[in-house]
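Give me structure tokens for this 214-residue protein.
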Amino acid sequence: MHCKNSNSNNVVDIDSFNPKAKSPFSNKDTSISTTDTVKIDFILTEVDRALVVATQEGLPVSERPYQIVGEKIGISEDEVICRLEKMLERGVIRRIAVVPNHYRIGFKANGMTVWNVKDSDVKRLGRQIGELPYVSHCYQRPRHEPYWSYNLFAMVHGTERAQVEERAEKLKALLGDACLGSEILYSSKILKKTGMRLSKKDDNASESKKTEGK
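Here you go.
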């Protein structure tokens, strides 16, 4: 699959952007997330912005979602995929993933396991935990001593609490001597999570007219 470089007429193979870049079809981010600030060197074009606005509420439920998005904003399916790959590589988009309602598919016991892990081992062990099939999220976070000693968070899913606790014991064994303490925080309610949203240009124009009329 190929796409045109926006700065030239050359044809660029999308695999050449970054061989380690995640595909838009990936459904799990196995890397450990940190609070480090990352500088993003990327200029958002009008087409890129239209693509973000068209997909920020979710992809169409279809066998060819990228084709539908492309038709909506006037570009090809291949170009949609290429542009998303490039934004993923540069960090403009963090990831593209399926977000199921785990309660409806039977995973009603969901525990955020929090761990006090030696700083020298947290990144290495965090990556290993993030690759486990029953861990959906794995983050490194700062401690807040003396009230909060935990610096590694791993979301563990199970059909019942006993299963979550069994899996937490496996995490504890994996962490070994690097683990200095842990807890399991169970979720009690599903809250709708959304990231930053770009406003549509029509919305901006309407808001400007309202401001001018005051």
